[in-house]
Prior knowledge:
Elements: H1 3-13, H2 18-39, E1 43-46, E2 52-54, H3 55-71, H4 73-92, H5 95-117, H6 129-144
Antiparallel strand pairs: 1-2
Helix pairs in contact: 2-3, 2-4, 2-5, 3-4, 4-6
Amino acid sequence: MSRLERHFADYADHHRDRRNKLTHFVGIPVIALALFGLAARVVVATLPGGATLDLGVLLASVLVLVYLLWWHAGLAAGIALLFLPLYLAGRALPVLWLWPLLAAGVALQYAGHYLFERRAPAFHQNLTHTLVGPLWVAANLLRALGLYRAPVG
């Protein structure tokens, strides 16, 4: 069993209830959208020609590289395609909308765990799950589309 399969199995063990899974399929993208949108407001560098490099692009790039280098190159490509619209939408939204979206996404995660799963979120025991969660959601979406075949739980 690969490291990624072990992470997915552990993560899936904390996400058995279908309603909890649904809160994650909505909440995790909402959290990502809000975080990318907030991070996009932080300019890291001004490039030649006046273009800027923002923290949102760096955050997405680092996460994709983490996935690519540590876990699964194919899923890294899939998650990059999913991150792009989340980043662009987050960048386009007013900051005053992003904070409530972030809070709502986090609240959905906790509601799913405490109302439906009846146990604490996986990242309370293993901080790695903050990275596994988005990949797990992406893998499930890509699997539903027929683009990923391995079991994800």
